[in-house]
């Protein structure tokens, strides 16, 4: 599982470096990393500060629409910035923010 | 052992404790058993306790003497505050909260006490007026006091103390008088917590403060060892040196001084129980209202927070940046995770900075946490920053939320949260009873809307915005300008167009002259205006002065008060140089009749009358518009004076009309110029003279002179006036004779404009225009002056270079 995550990260990187202009565009929907066996989708999203979000979705459930994914990423991004605003949070540390976790869980629950 | 200095409260508290431990009544030695129990009650890790015993020397002695005991207590307080145990810190740590000892029920109280240390308790009081144990007033006072020490005032106490006593001291009698009352009461005792003095209870009065809810719980079970509260021990209130109150939960009478911090003064529970449940709830609410009931911030606490805020950010409406806040709260020794959580709760607008309210909330939460309260998941209402209107305390509610989080007084927290709302409601009244809490009461009501938390959120930000509104000021300058204008137009352009001020004194003298024609040339600055305006003769001189000063570039620079309308410039513009004069004249023309009275700053404008009269006359005529009736006259005279002092312009104008003094003015101008501004004046005078030669020119010249004078101000006296004249003349008829034709032209122009303006005395618009003109004139004059000076500078530099070269050349020879 984590292997997929890493591979997807590589792909994201590749995409970033490839795109000369709007790098890590918010709408960097990375759809399509489907492994033959694992049928799950990995979505990528890069912020302006090169922070990458990856969402792995099981394809078993009906695919989420592109918009939904984007909104998820947006929420993620917002929560992330809130976390970053916390002076006590050292960038790089695993995020321990309850609020953040709450939002993330909420999203996951929402999307099934 | 090093000597130990204790505050009074500490002293009292410690002695109580010692007595408590002195089971054998030896008055000298505390029984080890009791002592150890006590230390255990401090809820410190055992190794810390061991360390403390070692440090205090008991290990050496094998027993706890009074001094050792005291030292140990202090070390406990230090340890509870989270500071490293050092012998040297015994005396160095200031404001150390009293050590908290959680003993059974007193814990809760203690907690409260700790939390609420000050205000809270008080809050409690009001509520629990009824039942509350009639704790000895002392206790109660503690609570009320909210002073840090009064941490855990039991509800009962709360009731009582409300009134009166909130004495901080730990009632010796009351068992657990939470030391809250003790003064420094660690931050825990944020006032909010009403320390419940376990007054009633014989135990310490835990500072019920915030933990209103806790109280209830405690009360009932009574046993609830103040668990949560006890927790605080570890927290040392962020502010260094606060004393942690020792909240003894149960029985330790001496410990009655439960630091208010411990809201969970368990002891109170006993008494509390007795208290009508309502009371307790009230108290609890009060406490909670500290933060939010428990979360309410008492006044004392809030004051404390505000003071802390000030140390970081003196501007109470400003923000504390995240990094500073981080540093500050890190001092509280809370784990980063908790601090992070507190931040999330308190940074309401998520901007990475803390407003005063947010800061208070955060602080409150930290205190609560330190006192063992769990951090809430959500910002308690009373801590929400929305209540900006109410008091900053409103925001403190945030912290309450956090309380739930920390597990320490688990019981407390759960209670707090749920009961908070209710408590808050109850508390409000109590709070209100206390003056201190008035503000809080409001908040408590807000806390009542705990459920409507969300709705409160919205206002928070706007409120914050409201809180920090920057008062809008009417541009003073504008107003001032207008005033100046009015003044100018109306009476005297005295307002110092600053540059002219330099000369005002001189001018004023002359101004005094009846004719006042003297252009206040001296103050070129003012002159322009003054002359332009038909001020009374008196004014003229003054204004003249101003104008003169204004005219003279130098003067302008010097005086140049921002507001004063440029009027003065016109007149004094001249001061700096011929060119300047001219410009001034031009600019000041409108305002100042003074023609070229180059405002020599130093020159005394007053040369008076004759010239002035003549000048003004000329000036006026020439520039009728320059000065309103009288002004015109002045201008005529002023021109003459202008050379000397631009300030006279005004007056001269007036008189100028009357007199056909032009001819005389001319000479006068010269005269003026000389006295006025020495060289410049002469120059100015010259031109002036020439200008004046013409009959009409007279007027003009006067005008110019006036203007020049006015504008030139102190700086370029002679040239200015000359300019003025020229200007006026020019206006009247193209003149070449004027030397400073340029200047005078300028001046004349100025004058031309000026006179008109002054006429319309009282007409704001014109006044404004006049002032504008004057300003422009002044500007031009100054610009010219500037250029001239720069040229001079260049020349001088060249000279210097040449001299240096020569020197070099000579040197070799000398070396030889």
UniProtKB/TrEMBL annotation, chain A:
Pfam families: Sedlin_N
One cellular-component annotation, GO: perinuclear region of cytoplasm
Main location: cytoplasm
Subcellular locations according to the entry: Cytoplasm, Perinuclear region
InterPro entries found in the cross-reference section: Longin-like_dom_sf (IPR011012), Sedlin (IPR006722), TRAPPC2L (IPR044760)
Keywords for this protein: ER-Golgi transport, Transport
CDD domains the record matches: TRAPPC2L
GO biological process: endoplasmic reticulum to Golgi vesicle-mediated transport
Keyword check for Transport: yes
Family: Belongs to the TRAPP small subunits family. Sedlin subfamily.
PANTHER family: TRAFFICKING PROTEIN PARTICLE COMPLEX SUBUNIT 2
Record-given protein name: Trafficking protein particle complex subunit 2-like protein
Species in which this protein is naturally found: Dicentrarchus labrax (European seabass)
Encoding gene, per UniProt annotation: trappc2l
TrEMBL record, chain B:
Regions of compositional bias (Basic and acidic residues) in chain numbering: 691-701, 727-740
A Pfam family this chain is assigned to: EH
Top-rank lineage group of the source organism: Eukaryota
Coiled-coil residues: 775-806
Domain EH: 10-97, 301-385
A molecular-function term among this protein's GO annotations: calcium ion binding
PANTHER family attached to this UniProt entry: EH DOMAIN (PTHR11216), RALBP1-ASSOCIATED EPS DOMAIN-CONTAINING PROTEIN 1 (PTHR11216:SF63)
Domain EF-hand: 334-369
Gene giving rise to this polypeptide: reps1
InterPro entries the UniProt entry points to: EF-hand-dom_pair (IPR011992), EF_Hand_1_Ca_BS (IPR018247), EF_hand_dom (IPR002048), EH_dom (IPR000261)
Residue ranges, compositional bias (Low complexity): 633-665
Record's keyword terms, sorted: Calcium, Coiled coil, Metal-binding, Phosphoprotein, Repeat
One GO cellular component term noted in the UniProt record for this chain: plasma membrane
Stretches for region Disordered: 129-152, 164-206, 220-244, 398-421, 487-511, 528-746
Name of protein: RALBP1 associated Eps domain containing 1
Matching Gene3D superfamilies: EF-hand (1.10.238.10)
Gene Ontology BP terms: endocytosis; endosomal transport
Polar residues composition-biased segments: 529-552, 578-597
UniProt keyword annotation of Coiled coil present: yes
